[in-house]
Amino acid sequence: MKLKWAYLAFLTGIAGLLAGCEPLLVLNPKGPQAETTANVIWLSIFTMSFIVVAVLVMLAVILFKYRASKQDPDYEPPHIEGNKYVEGIIVTIPILIVAFLSVVSTISTHQVESPPEGYSEDEPVVIYASSSNWKWHFSYPEQDIETVNYVFIPTNQNVEFRLYSHGTISSFWIPQLAGQKYAMADMTNYMNVVAEEPGEYMGRNSNFNGEGFAENEFTVTALPPSEFDSWVEDIHNTADPLTEEKFEELLEPGHLGQMTFTGTHLEFKPAPEGENSPHDHGGSSDSEENGGHHHH
């Protein structure tokens, strides 16, 4: 009886999930990294569904075939040794399932960690995405601009996000473009993202970090490269420069709308990129310290 209710609850949960107000963004990918993730999720769902269906069919057969019959009250069933074939099956199948999903996970993790196929030769567009309670700061060292709570990226180019935090650990996640990755205070993590279609995508912090967590979101707008370049030019013509005083003010806990500046905070507060950075080529610690300056 318990199993029946558990199964009904499971079906109701799945139905509720699939009939949500908005489509499952993670299963509607707009770039190669997210597509790999979506494919692995579908493969896992089908594998698990197959297991669930097989187990439930076996359960129904066994309950029907071996149900209690009208035996004499003093009937004693014969002693039976274990069946080596059944025991072999119940040990081998789970091992095969785990091995299969492990191989899939390893291959797909490697794929989403590397620049996507066809984009690895190009120089990536570098954007530093740093979090503070409860905002996201996007610094573009090459374009010499900075935005708060929104980011514009060119389509069909590898964008390398460099993630870190000015406080608590956050998790950077754009469901339609890439899986989540942590942003921490003392190190920089790297994430490659390619958007293959222009559009606006939701991004958010998926790691609980206090009372402002729910609104710790940002928008990602993918534009064709020429429109992206005009957007950068517009900012240089209209936005105010980011000063150290202003940046310290922005770091105060709280929520802000979208903001735009020329210059980046990397000039006076460099990212924590050190010898562990995959982009460190053995330079002296001085050159690392001034990492934020070399573009200006």
From TrEMBL:
Its main location: membrane. It comes from the Bacteria. Keywords: Cell membrane, Electron transport, Membrane, Oxidoreductase, Respiratory chain, Signal, Transmembrane, Transmembrane helix, Transport. Residues 122-234 form the Cytochrome oxidase subunit II copper A binding domain. Belongs to the cytochrome c oxidase subunit 2 family. It is an enzyme of class 1 (oxidoreductase). Gene3D superfamilies: 1.10.287.90, Cupredoxins - blue copper proteins (2.60.40.420). This is Quinol oxidase subunit 2. Residues 18-116 form the Cytochrome oxidase subunit II transmembrane region profile domain. The lineage of its organism: Bacteria, Bacillati, Bacillota, Bacilli, Bacillales. Catalyzes quinol oxidation with the concomitant reduction of oxygen to water. Subunit II transfers the electrons from a quinol to the binuclear center of the catalytic subunit I. Residues 266-296 are annotated as: Disordered. Its EC number is 1.10.3.-. Signal peptide: none annotated. It comes from Oceanobacillus neutriphilus. It catalyses: 2 a quinol + O2 = 2 a quinone + 2 H2O.
